[in-house]
Each structure stands twice: as C-alpha cells, then as structure tokens.
Specification:
Elements lengths: L11 E5 L3 H9 L6 E6 L3 E3 L4 H5 L9 E3 H4 L6 E5 L2 E5 L4 E4 L2 E4 L2 E4 L3 E3 L5 H6 L6 H20 L3 H8 E5 L3 H16 L1 H4 L9 E6 L10 H13 L3 E4 L3 E5 L2 E4 L4 E3 L2 E4 L3 E3 L16 E3 L11 E3 L4 E3 L13 H19 L14 E6 L2 E6 L2 E4 L1 H14 L3 H16 L15 H12 L17
Parallel strand pairs: 1-2, 1-9, 2-5, 9-20, 11-12, 11-17, 12-13, 19-21
Antiparallel strand pairs: 3-4, 6-7, 7-8, 10-18, 14-15, 15-16, 22-23, 23-24
Length: about 450
Amino acid sequence: MSLNISKGNQKRVVIVGGGFGGLKLANKLKGTDYQVILIDKNNYHQFPPLIYQVASAGMEPSSISFPFRKNFQNRKNLYFRMAELRAIYPDKKIIQTSIGKVEYDYLVLSAGATTNFFGNENVERDAVPMKTVSEAMGLQNAILSNIERSITCATKLEQQELLNVVIVGGGASGVEVAGVLSEMKSTILPHDYPDLDASLMNIYLIEAGNRLLSAFSKESSAEVEKYLRNMGVNVLLNKMVTDYKDHKVMLADGSSISTRTFIWVSGVKGQPVGNLGNEFLGRGSRIKVNEFNQVEGLDGVFSIGDQCIMSGDEAYPNGHPQLAQVAIQQGVNLGKNLRRLEKGKEMKPFHYKNLGSMATVGRNKAVAEFASIRLSGFIAWLMWLLVHLRSILGVRNKVVVLLNWIWNYFNYNQSLRMIFYPEKAAEVREREEREARVHWGEDLNEEDTEEEKG
C-alpha cells in the first residue's frame, strides 16, 4: 500500500493526529507553500468535551464529529489519509504508517492521549474507557443492555451487579458522566422501565485524592461534590482502586463494590509511538519538547497537545494541563513558526495563556474559574454551554447540538436510547487482519523511494 501522494519540490509537513492541535495547525498552514498531509486513524474530528453525552445516550455521535475531508474541501496542497503511525525513522525523515511509508521535512506528532490503566491488566481488559466517540458508544450500549438484562436476570445479586455503576476518576470526565447518569436514573428509568425499581440503580464515583476536580479551587471542588451528593451519587474520596475481579471493583482498604458497569476515567498518558525510545518520553509517557515544541534530538520533529510535555515553563513545572486550549494554542504557535521557517526567520517560543476551566454536573449545575473569578450554578452552566457550542465544528452540528440542549432542558425524553452493535463488512475485517500481521518496524531499504512505497 502507499499514500499515493507525489512530493514534488515542495517542503512537506506531516501531521499525525487531527485533534484540536493538529486540526488548528493544518488550518493555520493554509495559503503557505507547504504540502500538508494529515494522518488520523479516524476520518473525522471528534469533540471530546461532549463525549460523555454520547455515552449517556443524550446526543448522537454525529453531532460531535466532523469529517476531515469536508473541513478541507477546496484546500490545495492538503491531503488527508486514514492511517495509524507505526514507526519513525528520523535519520531518513520517513515514517511508517499502517498504509505505507511517507517522507517528511517536518513531522508533527499530535495524536493526543489515551487511557492510562497504570499497568493493571484486569482493569484494562474489563473496564470501559471514555476517551473517544467509539468508546462512548460502547459504554452507551453497555449501560443500556445491562439495564435491559437487569429486568430479566435470575438472581438479585446479578441484578444489583447490572444496576451498579462504578466510575473511577474524579476529574471533569468522571464528574460529568456521574452527573448525567444520575439525571438518567431520576428522569429516564421511571418512564422507560416502569417495572424496574429505579432506586436499585447505584452510581459510585471513586477518587483516590481527597477532593474532586483537583485542578480547580477547593471551593469549586466542594461545590461539585455537594451537587453530586444531592443528586444521589455515592462520592468516595481517598479510595484507591487496586483491581477488578469477579465483577467486583477492589479497593485498597479491602472493601469492594459489585458491578458490571465499570467506567475508568482515572488517568491518561501520551499516545505511544511505535519505536520512539524512552529517552524521548517524560511524565505520563508524554513526548518531551522544548519551548518551540521541538522534540530534542530529532531533526524536524515537533509534538503538540496532550501527546507532549514542555519543559522550561516555570508556571507549569510538571507540564501544561492536558486541555483543549493548550493544544489549540500550541497549534497556532507552531503554525506561525513553520511560516517563519519558510521565510528563513527564527521561531518564537510558546507561552500558554490560561483562559480558565469549566466543568458541568447537570442541568443548571456547573463550575467555572477565570483568573480571580469563580462562578457556580446556572451562570456557570450557561457559560459552559456557550463556550462548548462555539467550539463545535460545522454549522449543522452547532444547530443540532443547540436544539438538542433546548429540547432536553424542557423534556428529558430524547429518543436515542437504542442499542446498536455494528458489524464490519468481511472486506474490512480481512484488511484489518492483513494490516495487523505486518510488522510495525519493518526495515527501510535505501532504495525504498516515494514511488516504491506500495
């Protein structure tokens, strides 16, 4: 296979990952003389802040996803390829992807983060993560099918396992999914399942630290905890999960919680890159970069967003927070720097401008912090809605999401609670099996040219 893109005399920028940072960078290179290639394992950009609403059957996946090719229509010298990065060969300035090799002048790694299970194989095998749209759809199916099964199961023990929901991780994702599932319990279950006692559904939110939302102020953390407890969520602080066995979440203090809906949003780590050595990785398996987002020791290689960790910023000695705004601002700065390199000018260092943080718990319940300003309740919730609506790609998606929010505000009875198990076509399954058999780090021969990469 091959990417089938002729390089010509142009300098080539290869961007791996079309998240917030990669997409912003690709858009910032519009009008330059660079040939830009965007590589992503999906053919769409997804909007992670609203993934929890897909997981709770409150929003369609297409409402928070946008096709890359539609975004780049009428863009000359920009190409999209659906593929995965396998290995980097910086001495030859070539990368190996799942569909072939490609040369680069500048390589930008912006594939984001993946779920960190901290080496626990049982948790990794059985817990449901929630980083992508596809994972959110899997969680939605798991929740709905467990509720359906709980009505017909043979024993009370199995029924309670099916109705207990355990969420591990007290960050924004954990708080948001706990809140939306609590609302689902109180508003949807009584109507959809009148023959099921809704009080049997228990939602547990477990956090190893002493408070929720550790990145926020103590006041905001306390406010969110109060919201959740009033909504019926069992908030367990200073509790560390050690394992998952026999449908039980095992805690460090020796106690356990029975569940078949085990959601893990406890941590993230940088998306791994095939043959990239540990000497290039820092805290959380993130790629170490300097103030220009350059990967030191690799000529022409940059990294932005959640996948990287930058040194030299005294305000963030442990790296910048893995937030959309960091990725977006780094994408903007790197786009400007690549333009400067094109003109033979020096690059300018990245400086993060903290625009604030927000988290929502449910209808009329949210917290927001901007510099010295702290908001909570309805005003914070309204600001959360406006900021996220503004950030969604596509006019159609903005309208759909807005109408969906308005409808749900007055009526929780949305009709998205279907269970789908998509079946891949035989051709797709066979192709994926063939690609899986190809060795990640296949050797590159000197004569392996751009035209011979098929």
